[in-house]
Amino acid sequence: MKKKNFVSMIFGTVGGILFALGMCMCLLPQWGAFRPGVVIAAVGLAVLLAMWIVRRRMEGKPAIRFSAKAVGTVALGVVGALGLGVGMCMTMVWNLMVPGIVVGIAGIVLLLCLIPLVKGLQ
């Protein structure tokens, strides 16, 4: 395993676990830990952002590169992930089963649309 892959795996695992735990703390009212959950989720996002920057540096590329296509791809990914998350909340938290399934499937379709876009960027 290459060093950059190992470093990315460690950063990704730690950041993903912190972000997921923070989101659980925020979204589960039984835990009563909304504010600490926001902090932990923010730390997880910071670790994931650091992973992205470190990975780019290890590949010898600039840390941040903006292009219209890349920004559009990120926007589509964010909208798709939010759609999937809102659909899950609608079904599990707000008891809106059918509309939640429809919104969740729309989010999944948007995320699936990222595959040809990302393949085209390489």
Q: What is the C-alpha radius of gyration, as a whole number of Å?
A: 17 Å
* Total count of strands: 0
What about the largest sheet? none
Give the overall shape: flat
Strand content: under 5%
Broad structural category: mainly alpha
**Helix fraction bin:** over 70%
**Oligomerization:** single chain
Uncertain parts: none
Number of helices: 4
N-to-C span: 22 Å
What's the average pLDDT? 89
Counted up, domains total 2
**Which series of helices and strands comes N to C?**
HHHH
Q: Would you write up a description of this structure?
A:
By secondary structure, this protein is an all-alpha fold. It is 82% helix and 0% strand. The protein folds into 2 domains: 1-64; 66-122. It has 4 helices and no strands. The longest helix is centred in the first third of the chain and has 25 residues, at 3-27. The chain is flat, with a radius of gyration of 17 Å.
Question: How would the blueprint of this fold be written?
Answer:
Blueprint: H1 3-27, H2 34-58, H3 68-92, H4 97-121
Give a brief outline of the structure:
This protein is 82% helix and 0% strand. The radius of gyration is 17 Å and the shape is flat. The protein has helices at residues 3-27, 34-58, 68-92, 97-121.
Please describe the structure with a list of short key phrases separated by commas or semicolons.
2 domains, 82% helix, single chain, 4 helices, mainly alpha, 122 residues
